[in-house]
């Protein structure tokens, strides 16, 4: 159960607002290419640290989860 708010703003609201950096301010200042570039750099770092096999493993896990959700949806559809 969620705790009642004690006033002020939530962490989500603060991140979105951004102040000097972050959130919508960063998005407006730097645009989409900025986020694409930091994502690419982060992906390369993970690849260098963990290797190609890491991506294969998380891809396989993601595919299994999608398959489970599809099958769950099919079972639910039959009950209607």
Which key phrases capture this entry?
single chain; 80 residues; mainly alpha; 4 helices; flat
Protein described:
With 80 residues, the protein is mainly alpha-helical. It is built from 4 helices and no strands. The two termini are 31 Å apart.
Low-confidence stretches: none
> What Rg, in angstroms, do the CA atoms define?
20 Å
Largest sheet: none
Shape, per Cα inertia axes: flat
Mean pLDDT equals: 82
* Number of strand segments: 0
Q: Roughly what fraction of the amino acids lie in strands?
A: under 5%
The succession of helices and strands, N to C, reads HHHH
- Ends: how far apart? 31 Å
Query: If helices are DSSP runs of H or I spanning 4 or more residues, what is the number of helices?
Result: 4
Structural class: mainly alpha
Helix content: over 70%
